[in-house]
Amino acid sequence: SAAREGSGPVRCYEPSMGERADRRLALIRGFGPAVTDGHLRVHYQPTVSLEGRTVLGVEALARWEHPELGALLPDEFVPVLEATGQIGGLTEFVLDESLAAARRWHDRGMRLSVAVNLSVGSLDDGFPDLVAAALDRHGVPAELLILEVTESGVSAEREYALPALRRLHALGCRLAVDDFGTGQSSLAHLRRLPVDTVKIDKSFVLGMGTETGDVAVVRAIVEMGHTLGLTVVAEGVESAAVRTALADMGCDVAQGYLVSKPLPAGCLEQWLDSLAEAGGAPPGAEGGPV
Ligand code: C2E
Ligand code: MG
Ligand code: MG
Ligand code: MG
């Protein structure tokens, strides 16, 4: 933003408009090959209950190992794929990888949920069937799949997404409103959605240590969420002090660097194993040492 550029330190290098356009074009043209050449990855970040300190599940986060541009983050490539209508390919890839992982964990006795981020653009009429087929293919119970849609994605102007959301909910999947607090959703609107979970945007959670306003916002969302019978997740939990404050407010679930960064499946499995060794409690059971 202009304000940020004005107040920050002097920038030594700013990519030119031409360079940004080249990079965008590389992403647009490179996505198809990235899928077929196996350059997409999914990292998994655990979520833990604030009461029992147990691992409940993971959120699947897309990564792109670009052969020339290096490791790319979704904040850069997701908007490009949304704009070009290629986002459905990413959603399908992440869904397939995550359900395969969920199946593997399930077979090893770990009943972990997996949360997949959706772009509202992929919520067309055919999407619920695609999800049902993927659950079937991997033999994963629908209740282990959480689908996350951003608050702006379910705003009142996006009525067209409602039938697909209702069908996904009817399949038994859980629905979460992501980045809550940043959009315009009214309480009345949330009540009309088949939603089970709200995820408080990490900007408020990160601010809890220093901004009393953020503490008030987080408390209000926790209370409102519980009034509506929703599970409340705080993301961006980086400090033990914030985790304690969230637990005291009655927030249900924490996600953040304090617990773990997003990890490749193999590293997450090692992390889960080391937890089980340290505390003896398998993920999904009460009393883990997280
Ligand atoms: P999100 O769904 O809100 O995911 C949480 C983001 O916060 C992740 O960023 C995660 O790495 C980051 N995060 C987690 N804990 C902390 C913390 O303690 N501190 C800080 N500072 N950050 C934390 P990431 O992986 O870069 O993803 C960014 C966004 O990209 C996601 O935000 C989501 O909206 C989108 N995204 C990721 N994967 C997909 C995907 O497969 N499909 C779609 N449509 N969007 C995706
Ligand atoms: Mg999310
Ligand atoms: Mg979020
Ligand atoms: Mg986000």
TrEMBL record:
Pinpoint the EAL domain residues: 24-276
Entry protein name: Bifunctional diguanylate cyclase/phosphodiesterase
* Natural source organism: Actinomycetospora termitidis
- Please give the range of the full-length protein represented by this chain: 381 to 670 of 686
